[in-house]
Amino acid sequence: MNKTATYAVTESVSRGRRHTEPPPRERGEFQRDRDRIIHSTAFRRLEYKTQVFINHEGDLFRTRLTHSLEVAQLSRGVARALGLNEELAEAVALAHDLGHTPFGHAGQDELNVCMGAFGGFEHNLQSLRIVDTLEERYAAFDGLNLMFETREGILKHCSPANARALGELGRRFIEAARPSLEAQIVNLADEMAYCNHDVDDGLRSELLSSEQLDAVAIFAQCRRGAESCWPGLAGRRLVHETIRRMIDMLALDLINRTRSNITRSGVKTLDEVRAAPVLVEYSEEMRLKLRELKTFLFDNLYRHERVLRMTHKTRRIIADLFAAYMVELDLLPAQHRARACKSGSESDRARVVADYIAGMTDRYAVKEHRRLHGKTEANGLHG
Ligand code: MG
């Protein structure tokens, strides 16, 4: 198998943990990070959070949890091929969506509107907030006390104001430096995973058809490849044979292009990776193909009228919950109420409310909304 590359993240070059801890026995520091993420409460909640389809719409659609597992598996594969730190890539991938609200992007967009006067809401920053502060599992510290490089990988983007508030972790956004190659891989594995599984779920739900998708070059090419290998193949098997070819094509292109970028750049150390331009990328040809697929998914799946109707209802749920808690803190569970009452400013209180709402699963939010508002149009979610 590949040897560890000199530019991989290793424990010896790591900037370590915020709180010093004794080293783990019989496992590495990044394995420990992965294990902590899997044991966290926020990770288990991903099972009941929307990816594109609301959790109860069907048992076979992706949820945030299965999406995160697919991202982790793709990230590990690419990291291993390039001689990088597999455990770090896996840990970042498993944690990358921990901060997602219920109801997917619609939920995050609405919570961001609600938090407009209080610093906004961004799921990526919320993922970091969960692992740094909100998880309550250890006696000695808040959060999971993860390694610097795991936290750095979770924080994909950041405004200059937030970057300044984050100190060392935010510095790269101010200095326009890059994160580790492992983090760069997860970024693209995320996109690779959802582009492919959304095609699968889109076809399964019949919001998309294969005939429609034939207008997209990468799909048409891979479907032709599957049909010429297996004449007469049809139905779900043809869909899966097509999608596995798409994933294979993307992953191989990503590995090859990145490997040649690394060679051409001459980077030998992690510091040189940070100073170099982004090295993990697809070839120009594959980037265009992927962009065509993403545009197709945006126009035909994410903006499908059935998805938009659901978006509209779920945004109302988030807005109603936020308004209700802000008016009456007593509606919050005791623990959150205590935090909210302790916080001095309205903005601190709003953050506690946002943390609480962001932590909800889809069905909990629906149930809570029903409890507070009785039967309303927004409750039509189960109808
Ligand atoms: Mg994701």
Order of helices and strands: HHHHHHHHHHHHHHHHHHH
End-to-end Cα distance, whole Å, is: 53 Å
Within CATH, the superfamily of the largest domain carries the name Hypothetical protein af1432
Task: Please give the largest β-sheet.
Answer: none
Strand content: under 5%
Number of strand elements: 0
- What's the Cα radius of gyration? 22 Å
* Ligands, deduplicated: magnesium ion
Output the CATH topology of the largest domain: Hypothetical protein af1432
Tell me, what's the shape?
Answer: globular
Quickly list its features.
63% helix; Hypothetical protein af1432; binds magnesium ion; globular; single chain; 383 residues; mainly alpha; 0% strand
Model description:
The protein is mostly helical. The protein has two domains: 29-305, Hypothetical protein af1432 (Orthogonal Bundle); 307-380, no CATH class. It is built from 19 helices and no strands. It has helices spanning 29-39, 41-45, 64-81, 86-95, 104-114, 123-134, 148-154, 160-165, 171-175, 181-204, 210-213, 217-229, 235-265, 270-275, 284-302, 305-327, 334-342, 346-359, 362-373. Helix 4 (86-95) packs across helix 10 (181-204). The longest helix has 31 residues, at 235-265. The N and C termini lie far apart (53 Å). The mean pLDDT is 93.
In short:
The chain contains 19 helices and no strands.
Helix-strand layout with pairing:
Elements: H1 29-39, H2 41-45, H3 64-81, H4 86-95, H5 104-114, H6 123-134, H7 148-154, H8 160-165, H9 171-175, H10 181-204, H11 210-213, H12 217-229, H13 235-265, H14 270-275, H15 284-302, H16 305-327, H17 334-342, H18 346-359, H19 362-373
Helix pairs in contact: 1-4, 3-4, 3-10, 4-7, 4-10, 5-16, 7-10, 10-13, 10-15, 12-13, 16-18, 16-19, 17-18
The structure holds magnesium ion (MG).
